[in-house]
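Form 7-S
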Amino acid sequence: MVSKTTTHAAVLFSIILLFLVLWPAVLNDASIYYRVMTMAFFYGALAFTWNLHALTGSISLGHAAFFGLGAYGSALLNYYTQTSPYVTILFGGATGALYGFFWNITFDKLRGARLALATLASVEIPKVIIDNWDSFTFGSMGLVGINTFPALRFGSFVVAPGESLRAQYYLLLSFMLLIGLLHWQVIRSRWGWAIRAVREDETAASMLGVNTTGARWWALLLSAFLTGLCGAIYAHLIGLIEPSLVFSLHISALPLVLTIFGGRYQYYGPLLGSLILYPLDQLLLHSLIPVGHAIIYGLVIIFTLLFLPQGIGAWLQQRIRAV
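Output:
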């Protein structure tokens, strides 16, 4: 029997999704809103991918490594071979997963703060290599002229993400919902229960028959592949990349902030954080505080840890339950 809380949550989610799908038909000149919401969807997808690894109890500060390698892997393959971006983004994801494999081998015994610091330091390795390999990656000058996503034709219907902000909006909305569905399936699956058991008590989970090493490995590999995929999509959306842009601490930290604010243990937590914080920052605070608008992320982390340790998603669940 479906609980009242689940029903209310499903209704609320349906209303939000319907609004996100239909509002572009209401506003004629909405370019700024397209851009902001497209990036909100993008960071929502990135937060989902980060949380797939965090569900094991491991906090990563180095997911920018997967993101940057995915961006450069896809962009360089596209640049040198002129292969379609719809193909090269998969190579970008595979590049991120390969680095995740080396993470697993190197950091397998690390936990807690030691693991977080190691992941942060690991971002510098591919960044320095790419920054100094001028003949292949163009180094610190960056790679420009990256092909955008070509138009897709479905009979007489044409979708051109490289030319239309509205098409980019719906492309990223679809991508975020796809990653969110995967996140939901992971949380409710048997494997999802296994990785959460590892998070709560690794020794007890092992005694109950959970393959703790395998759970951690697959969670990181999946997270690394999807983060690399995000990096690849970013490269072809923006059209240019450079090491300091795609290997930045911002890329590693923002998914953490969005997820903790939204709720790490709710399947919709990362989405909630991205749809609230990023538009608030870009549409309101950026105009009020042009230089220091990013202060909101620091304040949100402090506020959440002090007053909403389970995230705003858990707080909303309690309010819905009380209705």
